[in-house]
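LAB NOTEBOOK - FOLDING QUEUE
OPERATOR: T.R.
BATCH SIZE: 2
PURPOSE: Compare the predicted structure-token outputs for two unrelated chains run back to back under identical settings.
PRIORITY: normal
REVIEWER: second-year student, initials M.K.

ITEM 1
FIELD SEQUENCE / FIELD STRUCTURE:
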Amino acid sequence: MAPSNFPGQTSASNGELLELASNVMSGGALGFLMLPRSEDVVIREGRGSHLISVEGREYIDYLMGSGPMLVGHCHPRILEAVEHQIRQGTTFYFLNEPAIRLAEEVIEAVPCAEQVRYVTTGSDATFLSLRAARAFTGRPKILKFEGGWHGTGDFAMFGTVPGEASDYPHADPDSLGVPGVLADEVLVAPYNDTEFALQVIEEYADELAGIIIEPLQRVLRPVPGFLESVREACDRHGIVMIYDEIVTGFRLAWGGAQEAYGVVPDMACYGKAMAGGFPLAVIAGRRDIMELYGNVGRAPNTIAWASGTFNGNPVAATAALAAMDVLRDPGVYDQLHRIGGRLRAGIEDAGHRHGIPVQALGEDMVFGVRFMENANPTQWIDLLDNDREMGTQFAIECVKRGILIVPNEKFYISIAHSEDDVDRTLEIVDEALGACKAKAG
């Protein structure tokens, strides 16, 4: 095993590194989005829409870092900007111009934004946005929607991945270690059920601080009138409406889901695509709410604490400024629609040819392939009819042939994906579905 000139890079094989990961890393992985071990892969590098393994195998990448790589891997404009900043310093914990300029850009782009607060992860952003909502209203409870993913904070981990419908408006925690007392403070309703959501809001209005929503919930689009009705109820009762735009921000449109769906919240959380692959997230919102985060010039018990060592890091902020500049290029969102739309339609057509019910659900820029008859699911409970075993087998067959996806998860489209990528992907999808059908008998 000959070492390279850089720490952490050797000539170890894929199998050797996977075995080592199993011994030294909890779960043998970085998180929960992973392939079956027999097909798992250790990545050496990324270029545009492709990833290359430590053994030199190339894949068309549709995980795209679980969403951050909207502009593609190693975009030259981002690399140039970051390399310049790194030579000036990597972190200061003081105000720096990239962070200030990025805040200005976010406020210009995001309809609800009058001020921003930097954090490092999406989980930070959602957790601290709920803190601000409680501080602003003086109320204890939040409402979320079943199946909505808002990171791993304790308040988020209720009714996120239930195997059956929750006992609305109450839900079980999704994780060990979540204090049971929080179950009374987190209300859960089925997504897109406008009538039930309004009933819960009316019943608990005097206790509700905030309502947090993924406007595109996983792969479920909002039905007409749902977001509008929640917005009106929040206005009526002084409840803070929060969009979790970690996935949708700068992806569905320049102004995110707020622009795409036409309903503006009071606060919104951003991350993933906006920073070009660097760890950065942002809470944006109305000035009167955002000012509750305050600063150390105020008494500690008069602010909603929100601070972190790497918040507003100049390297990440520089990367975000460069990524946003790329996303301003003419035709970017038209291209994302075109590439993603063609891919979605082609996957569903392939399913029809093979007699397999396949739905490509969501939006053109981010969608999920589900093996189910229902072409228009509206709630988490509808998605439980998905044949997950078929989804796992499909992913394995795709990975074998050179597409990198995770079973039963999203396809993320980037501006680096080309028509040639789509051509090859649809060939592989056709082969993979054929293999799945043959194995199913």
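ITEM 2
FIELD SEQUENCE / FIELD STRUCTURE:
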Amino acid sequence: MILHRDSELLLVDKPEGLLSVPGKGAHLADCLLARLQAIYPEVLLVHRLDRDTSGVIVFAMNRGAQRHLGLQFERRHCSKSYIARVFGRVAEEGGVIDLPLASDWPNRPRQMVDFERGKPSRTGWQVLEREAAATRMRLRPETGRSHQLRVHMRELGHPILGDPLYAEGVALEAKRLMLHAETLTLRHPDGGKPVTFRAECPF
């Protein structure tokens, strides 16, 4: 679902289960980028969301906007917030997880905490609602490592429900990965004004 389009930006609410970009092999050719380029051939990739994560994702409508947005992500001038439902009842009200992450090469695409070769990774978190056996949380990544939120929640002792890589047992029984990119704040390439885009959480 398209959230916003102008001469510089295209914001989309990505559905869960759809790749952001093509995977390896013809069976993984269907992706959000290809679907958008069928409508707007000029659309260019800026960043990605995991296949099983839904929510706000931005694309560029020209090369200049792509460079502008790419630098914002690289320099951490964008801010994002996610909604997650995690396994168990989280006791604290909020905090920051600061654990370096690296690829778990023998078990790709899994990532792992690695204090020797891992890259700095920080996630702010806040409890929104406690359920009988789960907790709804808002997550704010300060860095953008692969699977960062998923690994950090597991390390907190509360894996994201439905996570096929990092959850086990009853935490796997959810109908989808319970992770949604709710908001994205960035500076518009035309003028630099901060703008925020939101996609309503479907769970």
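REVIEWER COMMENT (ITEM 2): DSSP finds three helices and twelve strands in the chain.
FOLLOW-UP: none requested
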